[in-house]
Design a protein that fits this description.
It is a single chain. The radius of gyration is 23 Å and the shape is elongated. It folds into two domains: 1-43, no CATH class; 55-86. It is mostly helical. Helices cover 43% and strands 0% of the residues. The two termini are 44 Å apart. It is built from four helices and no strands.
């Protein structure tokens, strides 16, 4: 969002002047920005939230889910999805 990266941050750490921010944002070409339909501001997450996040699924859990999906495909269509005709 700006040269220092803190524009709009609730901490107030950004000290960039409006003309600096404008010059920085003008580096993105108009045709590129025209292809982006939605622009949103995403606030930074607190460090504690990042450090205390859950580990997610293990490889074994993913393997079990994939195997179950494969079985459902075979039961439903007698072949896997990539072998279906259009």
């Amino acid at each position: 969002p700006c040269p220092c990266g803190y524009d709009g941050d609730v901490s107030g750490r950004c000290r960039c002047r409006p003309e600096q921010i404008k010059r920085y944002q003008d580096k993105l070409s108009g045709p590129l920005l025209d292809r982006i339909d939605l622009h949103i501001t995403v606030p930074a997450l607190p460090i504690a939230d990042l450090q205390n996040s859950s580990a997610g699924e293990t490889s074994e859990q993913v393997r079990i889910r994939v195997a179950a999906a494969h079985k459902r495909q075979l039961a439903r269509q007698q072949k896997v999805n990539n072998e279906l005709s259009p």
